[in-house]
């Protein structure tokens, strides 16, 4: 239920003017769930919105945001238009103090916000969260946020809950320590998925002979292995493994044009374990043997 103008004025007169109050006033509605730790210094809130464009004024203190659910097409206003980059469930965003934001939501949006109340924490957060960072991966922060939200949904959001206080303290320590390495870079200039997919594609193409484990490629992209598999298949119409195999076959065909290169070396330089594996892959995917392919080249 939205607040009317009179009720909004009453809220502002009786509430502390913190970041959550600013957002509640802008949205004409407060958070669905909220929790303050035992000291009252840390605030954790859950917000759910639906399709629309939302403007949020500059916040008095930095805020950490994690999308918990909803669609993957949430954008922010970037100077003169909506960002090409989009957020997604599990993505984190850092909003510095004094930074106005505007959001475009295409469908339901479910997010949590985490902010600092005490002056000493706020000063540290101010230094740590000095740059707007959009839709990056911080797996630990996302996992802690999900655990905190789960406890809140079970009715455990009381100030004397030691477990919740420990979780929020851990999240605060993690964020203020600047451990979110993936967030040190600014948001990409292209769409989230394509940006990371191209990093994976370029790495494979540059050196097909490398092992390129799924774990390594996911770390390179800054997302989980399951998320990489999903977005890669959606964007490319093939799996990461199939793309790697194709890159190795392409490299092998290039090497086969050098008549002096032994077949075992062709296999090694293109990422196959041996000449027999190379021959098997050639027959299965290209319908001929490497030797036949080389003979056609000369």
From TrEMBL:
Matching PROSITE patterns: HTH_ARAC_FAMILY_2
* Keywords per UniProt: DNA-binding, Transcription, Transcription regulation
Query: Which residues belong to any copy of the HTH araC/xylS-type domain?
Result: 198-296
Q: Which domain of life is it from?
A: Bacteria
Residue ranges annotated as transmembrane are: none
**Coiled-coil segments:** none
Q: Which InterPro entries match?
A: AraC_XylS_family_regulators (IPR050204), Homeodomain-like_sf (IPR009057), HTH_AraC (IPR018060)
Sorted alphabetically, which SMART domains does this protein's record hold? HTH_ARAC
Name assigned to this protein: AraC family transcriptional regulator
């Amino acid at each position: 239920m939205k607040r009317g103008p009179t009720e909004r004025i009453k809220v502002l007169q009786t509430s502390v003017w913190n970041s959550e109050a600013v957002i509640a006033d802008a949205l004409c509605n407060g958070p669905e769930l909220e929790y303050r730790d035992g000291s009252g210094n840390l605030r954790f809130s859950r917000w759910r919105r639906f399709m629309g464009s939302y403007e949020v004024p500059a916040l008095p203190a930095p805020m950490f945001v994690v999308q918990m659910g909803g669609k993957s097409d949430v954008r922010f206003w970037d100077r003169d238009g909506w960002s090409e980059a989009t957020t997604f469930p599990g993505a984190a965003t850092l909003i510095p103090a004094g930074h106005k934001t505007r959001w475009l939501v295409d469908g339901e949006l479910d997010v949590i916000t985490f902010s600092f109340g005490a002056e000493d924490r706020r000063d540290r957060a101010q230094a740590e969260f000095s740059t707007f960072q959009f839709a990056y991966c911080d797996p630990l922060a996302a996992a802690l946020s999900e655990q905190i939200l789960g406890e809140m949904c079970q009715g455990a959001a009381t100030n004397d809950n030691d477990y919740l206080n420990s979780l929020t303290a851990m999240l605060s320590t993690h964020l203020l320590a600047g451990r979110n390495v993936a967030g040190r870079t600014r948001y990409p200039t292209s769409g989230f998925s394509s940006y990371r997919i191209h990093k994976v594609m370029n790495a494979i193409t540059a050196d097909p002979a490398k092992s390129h484990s799924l774990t390594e490629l996911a770390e390179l992209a800054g997302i989980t292995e399951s998320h990489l598999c999903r977005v890669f298949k959606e964007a490319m119409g093939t799996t990461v493994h199939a793309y790697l195999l194709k890159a190795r076959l392409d490299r092998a065909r290039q090497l086969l044009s050098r008549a002096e290169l032994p077949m075992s070396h062709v296999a090694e330089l293109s990422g196959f374990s041996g000449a027999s594996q190379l021959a098997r892959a050639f027959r299965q995917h290209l319908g001929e043997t490497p030797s036949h392919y080389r003979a056609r080249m000369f």
